Amino acid sequence: MHICIRRCVSYAQKVPQPDPSTTGDARKKWLTLNGGQPEIIARGGFSGIFPESSAPANQMALDTSLSDTVLLCNLQLTQDGFGICLPDIRLDNTTTAPMVFPKGKKTYKVNGQDVHGWFALDYPIDQLLGSVNLIQNIFSRPSLFDGLLPISSVEDAVGVRPKKFWLSVQNNAFYAEHKLSVAAYLRTANRVIINYISSPEIGFLKSISGQINKGRTKLIFEFKELDATEPTINKKYSAILQDLASIKVFASGILVPKEYIWPVDANRYLKPATTLVADAHKLGLEVYASGFANDKQASYNYSYNPVAEYLQFIDNSQFAVDGLVTDFPPTASEAVACFAQQNPKNRKQGQALIITHNGASGVYPGSTDLAYQQAVNDGADIIDCSVQMSDKKKMIRCLIFLSLLLQVSYAQKVPQPDPSTTGDARKKWLTLNGGQPEIIARGGFSGIFPESSAPANQMALDTSLSDTVLLCNLQLTQDGFGICLPDIRLDNTTTAPMVFPKGKKTYKVNGQDVHGWFALDYPIDQLLGSVNLIQNIFSRPSLFDGLLPISSVEDAVGVRPKKFWLSVQESEISVTLAVQRSRKCHFQSLSISSGQKFKILLVFLHYYFTEIPELIIKYQQRSRGYGQWRLRFAFYQTDGDHVPSSMAATTGRPEFSSDPVVTPPGNEVFSLNV
C-alpha cells in the first residue's frame, strides 16, 4: 500500500493539471475558499510513527507526502527564550527529562489550572538539546525510538526545507507570565519563514497582527473544545463560534477539531454536517480541520478506512475544508492526490479480480513456492510479489519487511514433525549437529539502521527467528570499556570527526598505518554522551545518521538476545576491560591468550542476563584464518549489589569448552581473572 501511495502521489505531482476555467472539467474545481487543493498539514511531521517533531518525523513527512505538504511545529520556549518543537508544555509527556533531571518536577498555573511536571522554561536550550531526548507521547504508537532522538529546535525543523511552515503557539499567556515573549522570539527568528501562525489565544494573535507580513504569513485562530474558555478574553469557544465575523478582523482562517464540521453521535455514527465551513467561507475565512490519525477511532461510517474520512471533508457536494491537520500525512496525501475528484461517470462496472497477498499466505507462509502454487490452484487471477533486492548478488526476491516478520512468526508457531519418526528427509539438516543453521545478525538489523544501534539490535530480534544470535564487533575505549562498532576507526561509523575535529591520529594496526579517529583515545562517557552513529555503507538509508548513540556491550546485551556473539577483529592489540559495577549487571573478566600473544577479554554476565545461555566469541588472527570459542555459563544470582570476590563464592562455575572452527596453532591458555 505504501508503495502504491508514493507512486500515485508522485504521478499526481508531475502531471500538469488543466485549468478548470478553460477546460470545463468540473472535477478539478475544489470547494475550498480559493478553489485550490486542500493543504496537507503534518502535525509534528510523521508523528504517527516517530516521536513528534523529531528529525526523522519531519524528514519522512516530506519524503512520503505531497511536495507542498505543510510542516507544523508546536512551539515551546526555553529558559533563555529559544524556540523548540514539542507537542506539550510538559516535558515529561514527550521527553526523557524526568530521568535526566529527577528533581526538576514543578507546579505552574496554566490557564488557571495547576499543572505538575517538567517544563521547558526551567532549562536553557543547550541543556535540553544536549541531554534530553524524545519519546512517543501516544503510548499505543511505536516506542522503538524512545530516548534516542534529540529535541528539535524551530531552526532544526525549518532545516529540512519544507515548502510551507506552520508555527502553533499554544501557551503565549503562560510564557508572558514568566517574562518570556513569543512575539520577541518571532522578531529574532528572522531567518525562519513562517507561512502560518496559529493560536487559541485571541489576545496573542491581535498583538502580532500588525507586526507580520500578511502577504507571507497567515494568522489562524484555533478553537479548542466548545466548553473550554479562551484565556485572554475569558469567553467560551462555543460563544466565539457564534461570532465568526469578529475573528476576520485579525485572522485569515480558523482551525477547528473535525467534530465541529462532521459531528459524531454516541454510537459513533455521523450526524449531518454543520454549516461552519459555509459560514466561514462566506466571511472570507479559511477552515482547517484537525484531529486526523490512522490509529484514532473514527466514525463507523468510514468502515475503518482513514482515506474515506479525509474524503468526507474535502470531496462532498457541499464544501471542502482548506486544510487537513494530520499525524499521518502520506494517507492524507493519498486521499487528495489519488482518490478525490473522481468523476463517477468515468467509473466502469466490471468483474472483480482475485488478487493474492503474498500468495495463499493464510494457508502457507507468505511469499513461498507453496503459497503461490496454492493460490494458483485456488483460482487467483493475479499473484503478487513484494520485491526485495539482495545487496550482494543483486537478486530479486518476493519478500518484504512485514512479510518476513509474519512468515518467521508463522514458521516458529507451526509444530515441526520429528524426521526420525516421519521419514521426512526435508527436515534433516546437513549441519555438524543436524540442527538448524544459526542466524547471526551482524550489528543487529544493520541493513537498515546504523550497525549495533539500539533500533538495529531490537529490530533484528523482533523480525527474525527467536533464537537469532546478536553479533557485536568489539572496540575498546580509553578506560577499557567495550562498545559495539563495525570498524576500529570511529570516522567510518560515527560523527566523531565533527565532535573532535582535531582528534585524527595514526596507529599501527596489523603492521599497517591506519589514519583516523580511534575509540581508545576517548573515555566511554565522552563517546556515549557526544558521539552518534552513521550508516557506514553509503548505499543504505542515511535517515538516522547522527541521531542514534553508540551502544556499549551492556546496551547490546540489554535487548536480551537468546545468544550473543562478540567479534574481536584486532588480534594484535592487547586490551583490558575494567571491572564495572552498575545497577543492572556486574562484569567480571575472563581473559584468553594464545602462544601468539592473542589476548582478548570476555564479558562474564550474571544476575541480569540469566536468559542468555551462551556467549560466542569470534576471533581472527592474521594469516591464520578464523575461529571461534563457544562458552556456556552456569549463571548465579547475587543480592543485586554484592560482587563475589572470587568464583569460589558463587553457587555455580562457568563451564568452558573449546570448539574452534579452524584450530589456530599454538597452545591456548585460558585463565579467569576476578
Chain-wise SSE layout:
Elements: H1 2-14, H2 20-23, E1 39-43, H3 55-63, E2 70-77, E3 83-85, H4 97-100, E4 106-110, E5 113-117, H5 125-131, E6 152-153, H6 154-158, E7 164-169, H7 172-177, H8 182-188, E8 196-199, H9 202-209, E9 218-222, E10 229-230, E11 235-236, H10 237-241, H11 244-248, E12 253-257, H12 276-282, E13 286-292, H13 306-314, E14 323-326, H14 329-339, H15 369-377, E15 387-389, E16 396-398, H16 401-413, H17 419-422, E17 440-442, H18 454-462, E18 469-476, E19 482-484, H19 496-499, E20 505-509, E21 512-516, H20 524-530, E22 551-552, H21 553-557, E23 563-568, E24 586-593, E25 599-606, E26 614-621, E27 625-632, E28 655-657, E29 669-673
Parallel strand pairs: 1-2, 1-14, 2-7, 7-8, 8-9, 9-12, 12-13, 13-14, 17-18, 18-23, 23-26
Antiparallel strand pairs: 2-3, 3-6, 4-5, 10-11, 15-16, 18-19, 19-22, 20-21, 24-25, 24-29, 26-27, 27-28
Helix pairs in contact: 1-14, 13-14
- Predict the CATH topology of the largest domain: TIM Barrel
Radius of gyration, taken over Cα atoms and rounded to an integer in Å: 30 Å
The strand line-up of the biggest sheet is 1-2-7-8-9-12-13-14
- Principal-axis shape equals globular
Q: Catalogue the unreliable spans.
A: 1-7, 20-26, 400-407, 413-417, 571-674
N/C terminus separation: 56 Å
Helix content: 10-25%
User: How much beta, percentage-wise?
Assistant: 15-25%
Total beta strands: 29
How many independent structural domains?
A: 3
Give me the secondary-structure category. Answer: alpha/beta
**What is the multimeric organization of the chains shown?**
single chain
The largest sheet is: 8 strands, parallel, barrel
Summed up, the helix count is: 21
**Averaged pLDDT, please?**
78
Quickly name the level 1 CATH class of the largest domain.
Alpha Beta
CATH superfamily of the largest domain: Phosphatidylinositol (PI) phosphodiesterase
- CATH-scheme architecture of the largest domain: Alpha-Beta Barrel
